[in-house]
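Chapter review. Work through the record for Regulator of G-protein signaling 9-binding protein-like before attempting the end-of-chapter questions.
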Amino acid sequence: MSLWRWSVDELALQRLSYITSCFHHMVACVGSSADGHFLREQMEESRRRAERVVSALSQRLLCQLSGSTPSMLKDRKSSERLWVNFLSAVENFLSDMRKASHLIGWFPLTDRRTLVNTGAVDGLVVLEASPQESWISLEEEPNLDLNTQICRTEQLLSELQLRVPVFLWAVECGNPAWFESGTELDTPDDSLEDLMEVVTHSNKVSSCCCIRASK
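Structure tokens for Regulator of G-protein signaling 9-binding protein-like:
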């Protein structure tokens, strides 16, 4: 696989993991004393961003795995590893959306007395990585409600698994895990950070992805 194509696909997969990880942490706050309208709005925005990345990256990987040119066949193992990691990320995201749907139904914001006092304060600062790769569509799309997006993601997963018959257990890891290799995790190249932008409620730029209580 060409270095440029690998960098773009791998970077997009990392950004998808960042976005879905942020969504995972936000879902954990639903129903707690840290819940509120701001958190719900940030969750909706995260879902939209994840939807765009999933749609674009799935099309790129489908093209690579369905091609029959010699270069594509040579790079198939690398593409299959990306494919397995991509499906795992989408499945985790789908699980979090289902959990969010249940929690939102159990804890409406109309009565804050039903929220669980976890010790966290209301009002969260959410820092989320949003990918800005040129091949991701930036066109405005109609907002999907949570249950509609869950159904669409379930359908997408089923279609992808049918179109690409890759046995997940048959795909081998290309490199040893970092704790097995005895080396520290590599830090991303600074040049790659130009492709991402982190947005907060105060429009500041940061390079982390976290949720913390505001003062």
